[in-house]
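user: can you give me the structure for this one chain? tokens are fine.
assistant: on it. calling the predictor now.
[tool input]
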Amino acid sequence: MYIIILSEFSYQTASGSDENAIDISEADLFQIGKSKKFDVENKTVVDYDVNYEQKQEINLRISSLKGKLSSTDYIVLKYIEGQLSETDYINYKNIRQSYRDEINVLELELSKL
């Protein structure tokens, strides 16, 4: 079957005499958007991770949470050194724990994708 690639996930049928057309198997064509996509620049079919964007979002959120943990490390040190009371520290401790809990949930979700 001959097609002309329009975008990563779209095409139009073509004749074999069209210079922009590529020959593609029906099996590969059936997998477009599932496990394969078009490489528009190289006019080929390549593997595609359908969860790529979701994984990227999760990884960005994990990075953000780890950054928040790092940015509050000094508060832990102040508490350890006695410069912060337990009453003042408890709020930060709970917030930091919520960050770690969310990271754990996101990492588990990521491992299932």
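assistant: here you go. Helices lie at 26-31, 52-71, 73-80, 86-112. Residues 86-112 form the longest helix (27 residues).
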